[in-house]
Amino acid sequence: MLPRKKITLTLLLALSLLLPFTGNLQVAEAAQQSSQIDAVLVVDDSNSMNKSDRNKISNEAMKMFIDMLSAKGDKVGVVAYTDRIQREKALLEIQSASDKEDLKQFIDGLDRGSYTDIAVGVKEAVKVLQNGADPSHEPMIVLLADGNNDFNKASGRTQQQSDQELNQALTEAKKDGVPVYTIGLNADGKLNKAALGEIAQKTGGKSFVTDTADDLPQILSEIFASHLKLKIVPIQSITANGSYQDVTVNVPNASVLEANISIMSSKPVEAKLYDPSGKEVAIPSSDVLVSKSKTYSLIKLLKPAQGDWKLKVKGVAKDKIDINLVFNYDMELAMDQIPAKTYSKGDKIDINSYLISNGKKIQNTSLYQDMNAVLVAKDLDTGKTTETKLGNTGDHFKGTFEIPDKHAYEIKVRAEEKSFYRETPPVKISAKPGGAGTGAAASANDADKKPFPTLAVILGVIGLAAVLAALYFLLRMWKKANQGFVGQIVIEIRDENTGEKTYPQYKKLAAFKGKFNLHQLLQLAPELRETEKIIFTPGANDRIVLKNTSPSTLEKSGRAIDATKGLELKGGDRLTIPLIGVDKTIFLEYLV
């Protein structure tokens, strides 16, 4: 029974990390695995909010956000501020339902006070994350305010001092990769939209504005999904008629770990739930959790069975009901082991690849229906990359790789559809004279291979000094090829036809060694393939070097930059890349 003008059902199918998998498979790390969240909820608790949020809907929205988090693992902190910190709760790792109740009771106990200083709240939220965030989690700050400051004249505090403190906090947040999402409440028409928008823009967050606090639960749901890069798919709209109405909730496969169903309405709402076998499931029960507040109810399904679940919803006649699904999958992409042997030009290698979950092949053929897969082969001698489409058999992808030359190659499979993509780890094979295949020693009797000279022959021909020089050179090359990266790159893409810009994506670089190209950071999107020729290599002093051989011209501070011979980037550097082949512009920022 929830005060809201309409009912919104948001289904969140959350992704988590798989257990290590062993066996005759080469298993990919999921390309877009869902991360745990470390969130600080910051709320303006001044008296000015009595007009903007008379019924404390902001508190209800924060509580719903907490309930939408995973049953275990996420961290949440709360900061309530006026011109000082009213109350604060450090990051609490959620391990049980009682932890969530603890947080919600803390929020219910917040009282309002005089004066307002946004800098105080934002600065404290950044500090909370710096002191308690998990480096492997996705940090975020959500700020609910009207954007206006109201200083206590007796304190001597000035707007200039506040702005300086706020800018310093935002600089630290940006450096740490912490987006600040702002929600402006404009019920009294005095919202400072520009100030809140600037806070979000400076940190790569997103800004929302509403004239009624009743919209807050829906906005926080959107922030939650947006931060985890989950896709909301509208599936149905109905109008309540006073009787139970059926809503189908499809769980596509056994890899779904959680499903959150949030129900919001200004009138009483009742719900029943039936599993795919048609059996009614008690709410709550061992695998179904439920949370209720003044403005919402949330049903969480834990490891739900695959198939069509039925949700029966009974609302007051004429209330509109909107239903949305957010899908993500606990899946990886595997490839059958490539035989360890020596290879020759013209040899053919059978390729078989398939989706797995928890180390087992996924049998649900519907997952493959809209997916395409390619074999990506990189010639390690020339640097040229080719893609060959693989056949989709309905439960796996198959094809053949014919070795085109006496070179070394790196091959992998990439499968994708509109909402995600996965890759297998790259596998190296060699058809070079004197080389080995996938780890097997080369055959000395192979007529196409020339045996490598013994050390004694080398010493007799070129001398010990030349050997040592060669070893030194090889060691330097090996170190260069395995040198790691630090920091992250923030990416935004603007569609020049519509002017719309994508949500900032934070790409951590620690997983790359030696070099990588921009196309990899862009999830290998086919329309952005020209970015394959924009290459990054590690530089000294936590810098990276960009080399551009693509037709695109790079711009820095509005000026064209020649990066054909390499451009060194330090922390905070920004680049603009207008693409030639498509009407899109890429914005990059390197953060250390």
SSE layout:
Elements: E1 7-13, E2 25-27, E3 37-44, H1 49-52, H2 57-68, E4 75-81, E5 85-93, H3 97-108, H4 118-132, E6 138-145, H5 159-175, E7 180-185, H6 193-203, E8 207-210, H7 216-227, E9 231-239, E10 244-251, E11 258-263, E12 270-274, E13 280-281, E14 288-292, E15 297-302, E16 307-314, E17 320-327, E18 332-336, E19 348-357, E20 360-361, E21 372-379, E22 385-389, E23 391-392, E24 397-402, E25 408-417, E26 420-423, E27 427-430, H8 455-481, E28 488-495, E29 505-508, E30 516-517, H9 518-521, E31 534-538, E32 544-548, E33 554-556, E34 559-561, E35 567-569, E36 574-578, E37 584-591
Parallel strand pairs: 1-17, 3-4, 3-6, 6-7, 7-8
Antiparallel strand pairs: 1-11, 2-18, 4-5, 9-17, 10-16, 11-15, 12-13, 12-16, 14-15, 18-19, 19-20, 19-24, 21-22, 21-25, 23-24, 25-26, 25-27, 28-29, 28-37, 30-31, 31-32, 32-35, 33-34, 36-37
Helix pairs in contact: 2-3, 2-7, 4-5
Main attributes?
alpha+beta, 592 residues, single chain, six-stranded antiparallel sheet, 36% strand, globular, disordered N terminus, six-stranded mixed sheet, 9 helices
Broad shape: globular
Number of strands: 37
Mean pLDDT: 79
Estimated share of beta-strand residues:
35-45%
Spatial order of strands in the largest sheet: 9-17-1-11-15-14
- Radius of gyration (CA) equals 28 Å
**Helix amount, in percent?**
10-25%
Uncertain residue segments: 1-34, 439-459
Count of alpha/pi helices: 9
